[in-house]
Amino acid sequence: MKRTLTTCPYCGTGCTFYLLGDDQGRLVGVDPSTSHPASRGSLCVKGWNAHGFVQHPDRLTTPLIRRGGRLEEASWDEALELVAGRLKDLALRHGPDALMFLASAKASNEENYLLMKLARAVFSTNNVDHCARLCHSSTVTGLAETFGSGAMTNSIACIDEADLILVTGSNTTEQHPLIGARILQAVRRGAKLIVADNRRIRLAPFADLHLRHRNGSDVALFNGLMHVIIREGLEDRHFINSRTENFAALKEAVADWTPQKAAGITGLAPGQIVDAARLFAAADKAMLVYSMGITQHSHGVDNVRAIANLALLTGNLGRPGTGVNPLRGQNNVQGACDMGALPNLLTGYQKVSDKATRESFARAWGLPCLPRAPGAMATHAMDQAAAGKMKGFFIMGENPMLSDPDQAHVRQALESLEFLVVQDIFLTQTAELADVVLPAACYAEKEGTFTSTERRVQRVRKAIEPPGKARADWEILCEIATRAGYPGMDYPGPAEIMDEIAALTPIYRGIDYRRIDDLGLQWPCPDESHPGTAILHAERCTRGPGHFSPTGYRPPAELPDDDFPLVLTTGRTYFHWHTGTMTRRTHLLDREERFSFVEIHPEDARRLGVHEREEVLVASRRGEIRARARVTEMVVPGVIFMPFHFAEGAANVLTNNVLDPEAGIPEYKVCAARIRKAP
Question: How buried is 59 (Cβ within 10 angstroms: 0-12 exposed, 13-18 middle, 19+ buried)?
Answer without folding.
Answer: buried
